[in-house]
Each structure stands twice: as C-alpha cells, then as structure tokens.
Fold this protein.
Amino acid sequence: MADARGSIDQYVAGFRDRVRAMRHPGQEIVDEPGLLGLVGRSSEALDGRVLVLDDRAHETLAARLPELFARVFYVFDDAEACRGLMSQDPRFRPTRCTAMVCNGLGAIPELSLPAGLTLRPVSASPTDTAEVPLADAASAALRSDAEMAPTTDLDSFLEYLRSIPNTRYVAAVDDGGDVRATAAAASWGSTTGVFFVNTDPAWRGRGIGTAMTAAALRYAAAAGAERACLDASSLGLSIYERLGFESVGAITQFVDQG
Ligand SMILES: CC(C)(COP(=O)(O)OP(=O)(O)OC[C@H]1O[C@@H](n2cnc3c(N)ncnc32)[C@H](O)[C@@H]1OP(=O)(O)O)[C@@H](O)C(=O)NCCC(=O)NCCS
C-alpha cells in the first residue's frame, strides 16, 4: 500500500497528465506552488479544471480568481484560506468529495451485473449505431444525478464528454434498451481518470455501480493504464474502496454554475 504522501503525489501527477491531455486552443496551464490547472478565456468552457493543494496558492487565487475561468475548482482541505475565498464567491456551488488513487489495476475483478442488465460499450461518435449512443448514456446520467455533471444541458454535456480524449464509456442497458447505469475511464499517460459513474436510483444497492466502475477500469488497464484517480462523492466512496482505491484527502469541489 502506498503511503498517503505518495498517493497525493500520484493524484497530482494524474491531474497534471489530465490538464495536458485536455488542453484546447485558447486555454492556459497554470502550474504554481499549491495550484495546478487548465483555465480558459471564457466561462463557457466546460473543461477547465483547477486543483488547489494548499494555501501557497492563496495569493494567486485572490488576485486572479475573476479571470481564472474553469468550470470546477478542486480545493483540498489543507487550503483553508483558499476554501474560504472560494466559498464567498456566489458563482460556485460547493460539494464535498474525496480524492482517491488506485495502484492495483491489475487486480480489478470482472463483476457481473444483476439479471436484466447487459454491459455495453458506448460510442462517442454520433454516426456509430453499433454501440450505445453517448447521448443515451449522457441523458441517463443527467436523470440519475444532474449535480455530478458540469452542466445540466444535454448538448453542452455531450460536447464536453466528446472533448475528453482516449475515453472508454460503458453502459448497463436493461431488456427494454434503456440505459440504467454508466461509467467512464479516460487514459492520460499512465493514469486513468474515472468519472461518469451513475446508477438509476431505482437500480441502486445491487452492485451495479461497483461492476460498472470495475468494467471501465479493466478497459483502461488493458489499454496500459497503471493507476487510476478519481473524486468520489459520498455515495461513491464505498464502491471505490471496495475496488482498492485509497483516499488521499478531502476536497471541496466548487462548480461554476454559469
Ligand atoms: C454512487 C452510485 C453510482 C452507486 O451506485 P450503486 O449501483 O448503488 O452501487 P453499488 O450497488 O455497487 O454499491 C452501493 C451500495 O450497495 C451495496 N451493494 C452492493 N451489491 C449489493 C447487492 N447485491 N445487494 C445489496 N446491496 C449491495 C454496496 O455494498 C453499497 O453499500 P455501502 O455504500 O453501504 O457500501 C449511485 O449512488 C449514484 O449514481 N449516485 C449519484 C451519482 C454519484 O454520486 N456518482 C459517483 C460519483 S464519484
């Protein structure tokens, strides 16, 4: 088991790989003591992300917050003054979550879904009809828990999901063809980022979220990922612990609601 410090370093390294992979024209990478992120020139961009590790970031954040356009700021509890600053800004909705890392991707089991559900790959291409359309998976995810998405608008959400490179999306589809659960793993260098984990409220508590996360992780491991990072909601925490993820710290996620 990696020690906590090592895991934080791995989480930060994964975040750095993520912002490098996600960078689009017009976006800037900010990499300063206590602060790492991808910021845009407009609040419209959904892919900007900033990680605030500790209060070494306070001076920069206090001076630049109005122009650091990013949809989500992840602020570790160690950055108490930064958290206070963000909390006072009415643009942001705070949610508590846990930063996690898993180093044992080779040991992720293949878990079956309950009767009535089938695991299907999802296609991000609008013209591919062989797989579950990403639009079906995205609308199911928004129905399941709109607060976990960076936007509640389906078209913007789809545009954002399609902009994430090297991502495998999976869906659990019922006998009528409806998507009941989703998961995704994006590969950035040797790290995979897990997100888009949702189960229809009527199907929860039956091992589906765990099985879907495991399926996405197995795809990422087969594609060469060595470790996984994610930000767990309170509902997701136990499923990730069961799969071998370790907590590296508590975070407040500030989502720009603009
Ligand atoms: C988080 C979420 C995906 C979990 O989905 P789920 O399908 O209910 O997940 P699981 O069934 O695998 O695990 C949930 C609970 O059911 C239990 N469970 C698992 N298999 C079970 C089974 N066969 N029978 C009964 N209970 C079972 C698990 O032990 C777990 O309980 P615990 O939290 O007390 O440990 C779901 O709550 C959700 O969509 N939440 C909103 C979005 C969200 O927060 N996503 C996570 C973002 S990081």
